[in-house]
Amino acid sequence: MSDLKFGLTETEAETKELFKKIDKTNIPEHVAIIMDGNGRWAKEQGQDRLFGHFHGVESVRAAVEGCGELQVGYLTLYAFSTENWERPETEVNGLMELLVETIRKESESLNKNNVKMHVIGDRSMLSAFVNSELDYSLNLTRDNTGLNLILALSYSGKAEIIHAIKNIAESVKNNELAIEDINDAVIKANLYTNKFPDPELMIRTSGEQRISNFLLYQLAYSELYFTEVRWPDFRKKNLFEAILDYQNRERRFGKTSAQITSS
Ligand code: IPE
Ligand code: IPE
Ligand code: MG
């Protein structure tokens, strides 16, 4: 209540309270988000799907800001899957335009905030125009040392694994690698995400409870958090709630609870 007197809105006060509750010594290093529900959100307001995508940009800003405040090291956002290419052409084009517009508008401020951008996915399916915008932002932020913001674009977890298998098979064929030496580390080194740790926490909005071809290998031991909130309504408060939920879980990695508590 006292915060309200200091001019904070109820949501801001609530966000601040949640922030305080978070254990700053147990922040996930990598948070991955399936940003879902834009279309349904728009439909609920009698608008077309692109309206929902447009409003989802504010939620991206909130997620980036919230992760920055908590010093999360890596934030991966599932922005467009290879399956999404099958959507109606107007939606695909609208999404690509929104992507370019957003990168143009946000790159400078991301750079000022020390954010380093990365892209994972099949960039050969993106237009030259989209690719050049992405390159601009990747270049601009390449030396930054703050939050690593990873955009999964034209991304497919299966395609990523197939790509890794092909690379590994090539190394075996060229006698650079023995079959006996193929292990988890070798596979990891050949994924698009080879420079990033696996996500400790994966959030999906809009109530769907599936992975939809996202980070199949990397999510092996991630904590999964599903919320009914549609992506355009997602704010820092929702991120903080997810992180608090994560902090209340016991990550056992196959061991017993007693083993975890004694160590
Ligand atoms: C997520 O929202 C954005 C993308 C997949 C690009 P959707 O567009 O999937 O919205 P719903 O799931 O149809 O509501
Ligand atoms: C997953 O959402 C892809 C992104 C959020 C970019 P979808 O809306 O495409 O997934 P499905 O079709 O519901 O599984
Ligand atoms: Mg969806």
From TrEMBL:
Tagged with keyword Magnesium: yes
Residues noted as binding Mg(2+) in the record, renumbered to the chain: 36, 223
UniProt-recorded Gene Ontology molecular function terms: transferase activity
Residues annotated to bind substrate: 37-41, 49, 53, 81-83, 85, 87, 204, 210-212
Presence of the UniProt keyword Repeat in the record: no
Enzyme class: transferase
Keywords: Magnesium, Metal-binding, Transferase
EC number(s) recorded for this UniProt protein: 2.5.1.-
PROSITE patterns: UPP_SYNTHASE (PS01066)
Cofactor detail note: Binds 2 magnesium ions per subunit.
Active site residues according to the UniProt entry: 36, 84 (proton acceptor)
UniProt-listed Gene3D superfamilies: Decaprenyl diphosphate synthase-like (3.40.1180.10)
InterPro entries: UPP_synth-like (IPR001441), UPP_synth-like_CS (IPR018520), UPP_synth-like_sf (IPR036424)
Essential cofactor(s): Mg(2+)
Subunit structure: Homodimer.
PANTHER family tied to this protein: DEHYDRODOLICHYL DIPHOSPHATE SYNTHASE 2, DEHYDRODOLICHYL DIPHOSPHATE SYNTHASE FAMILY MEMBER
Main function: Catalyzes the condensation of isopentenyl diphosphate (IPP) with allylic pyrophosphates generating different type of terpenoids.
Family of this protein: Belongs to the UPP synthase family.
Protein name from the UniProt record: Isoprenyl transferase
